[in-house]
Design goal:
Radius of gyration: 11 Å
Largest sheet: none
Number of strands: 0
Oligomer: single chain
Helix content: over 70%
Distance between the termini: 9 Å
Order of helices and strands: HH
Length: 47
């Protein structure tokens, strides 16, 4: 269950990037959702 530990790290990085550059919000959210979706569909990709 690496996804449980992986998600907060991604969330933290995304939050910091959004604070630094708010224009990145749409891209960060899109990438985050794609990564979480891929991990959900293919759990073996997370390790």
């Amino acid at each position: 269950m690496h996804g449980i530990q992986f998600t907060p790290l991604i969330s933290l990085i995304a939050g910091v990037l959004i604070l630094i550059m708010p224009r990145l919000l749409n891209y960060i959210v899109a990438i985050y959702l794609i990564i979480i979706g891929l991990i959900g569909l293919f759990p073996h990709l997370a390790g």
